Amino acid sequence: MTGTYALVVAIEKYGKRSGLASLPGTLERAYEFCDWLVQVRGTDPENIFFCGGEPPLAGPHTFPGTRAGIRTATKKLVAAGRDTGGDVFVHCSGHGYQVALSEQRQIYSDVLVGANYDQDGERCLRLDELRNELQFSMGPASHFWFVDTCRNRLAVQVPELALGLANSDRGAAVPYTMFSAAEGMPAFNDTQFGDALLGELHGRGRAKIRVGGAYWVTFARLSETLGTLFHGRGREITAQPGPGEGRIARIVDVRRTPVTVTVDGLQPGETLRLLLTGGERQPRRITIVEAVTHLEVDPGDYFVQLERGDQLARRVDPAGTEKLDLYEARQLRFDARSTEPEPADIFDSLPSADPGYLGLSYFGDLATPYRMAPRGGLVMDPRADLETFLSVQGAVEVPGSRGHTAGVADIRVLSDLPRGQARLLGRPSAAELVSRRDGIARAGLTAESGPHRLHLDGGEQFAVATAALPGRVTLVVAPASAALPVFQYSLAGRPGALTVHFLEKVGFSAWVQRRFGQNREVISEHMPPRLQGLWRQLLSGDWPDPITVLVAGFELVRRGAHAADPADLRRLVGRLRNEYDEELLPDLGVLSALAHGRRPVRRSDADPLLLDASTAIGIGGPPEGMATDYSGPWTMWRPWLAA
Hints:
Elements: E1 5-10, H1 26-39, E2 48-51, E3 62-63, H2 67-81, E4 88-93, E5 96-102, E6 107-113, E7 124-126, H3 127-137, E8 142-148, E9 174-179, H4 192-201, E10 208-211, E11 214-218, H5 219-231, E12 238-240, E13 247-251, E14 257-264, E15 272-277, E16 284-288, E17 292-297, E18 301-308, E19 311-317, E20 324-325, E21 330-339, E22 370-372, E23 378-380, H6 386-396, E24 408-415, E25 421-424, E26 430-432, E27 434-435, E28 441-448, E29 450-458, E30 460-468, E31 472-478, E32 487-492, H7 500-517, H8 529-540, H9 546-559, H10 561-564, H11 567-577, H12 587-595, H13 611-616, E33 639-641
Parallel strand pairs: 1-2, 1-4, 2-3, 4-8, 8-9, 14-21, 24-31
Antiparallel strand pairs: 5-6, 6-7, 9-12, 10-11, 11-13, 14-17, 15-16, 15-18, 18-19, 18-20, 19-21, 22-23, 24-28, 25-26, 25-29, 27-28, 29-30, 30-33, 31-32
Helix pairs in contact: 1-4, 6-7, 7-9, 9-11, 9-12, 11-12
């Protein structure tokens, strides 16, 4: 791509007075990054501004790796690229540390150590200042930052950068930032981060996904891929995503992945169908007539199922029904003699009292006893907590999405309504709420992926915003009275083993949504450590339900954390954006704007799920007497009372 600009800072050697060790391989990786810019991004070499130690390397756009040299290079880059609309890449490698901007609020700034460092902060520069100068002076575009420095904290005074660059009249850029180390931690003096980064940028790994019919390396996918890689090596990286997926580079030369499918118990003359779905691809069905079949697929993450008539043959290697990584050669084994197990009936038995119950005491004032039924289902006592009971029951009974085309999803409704109908407003999809002997009514709907208004007719009539997400089942828990809170979850179809760990997260999701709707603080330092640990998992995005992750995002907004320290909210939004866009979850755009200090605006015709998001973009208003500036706890689902 033409019009791309880059600032590359690589400081491999420091003077004797610095007391700092050399960083072997730093310059070599920086040169390789420049080669990638030219070869893959199509960057004009004249648009690369390289700061590589002192004395400067020869060339019209090379500068010393000193504070002064980096300031000069930045000014020249802005003079050349302001308002051209070109993306900007910044690659910084060398020694570094963090300084406190606010110890009380735990806000820190990353510092790059200049090549002429003399054991003080005078010859260093704050990277957040450099990022802000480029963000507001270059004009609208995407800025991608890759920083390979230490981030341990020091008490050092670093003078302001004070470049004096004028802001662009056309608007600001959107930064995406990745660090090779966690906050407050040193980096490793090796080339592992640089090597892995370059490999993924070239499209050799798992950071490429299909977007708009082509393969792209995106910042969201790159962050996830490198985060998983280095976590497995006992390291942690840090990513600060922007509001979108962050398209870094289009990969043209993509090799297909060889896959070997073995089917045990295939009868002579029998024909099976291998179904591959996932992402934006159209479902692919492959005829299987032999015990061993060799095929090639486009690299990606897939749900892989083997259809035998109207049943699914059991996948034994790898076992389960989760998505599979098909970026590298893979061998899959199915057993045609057995089928994927159906979830057990949750009401196999429901004793009034049983010493085998386990109390979920870690929910504080919420105690929901449960035990495992003989056939593996879950038995709970609905008298303890109706909403959590329905939520966990629904999670156990989440059905698979069989026979659906791309872009179609399931919506499952559970209610204590004695009878009635569930239908999608404006859609020809409706189902009767059927009550079983447990007194709980169920209805199953099929819907196109995206936002919907779900209407419930029975007792009181009301409608609520919901969303059908591809590859997932939206579970709506709706008590008989519209005055009671509605609970919503989006769970992967046919979850694998129904472990206590999984059900615990569903139960905690109900806890979060209830306290949220009651205008109560969701979590505090006075609550049990188990609750606080689950909250941290929820904020990290390690959660089976993206809708509850949305609720957690607005809880951060309620606290004002999006302004004081937006890192958690940006990380949370980034994880969601890796899988969904605003067409499916309009609340994402509102959270993203708040995380980056912008005014939320409406970007689609779809209504958000949450009242916070609706009010922020001018749809309706909050309950009477409550503030609209996020200082008041008024977040809740956006309902419509039926006429």
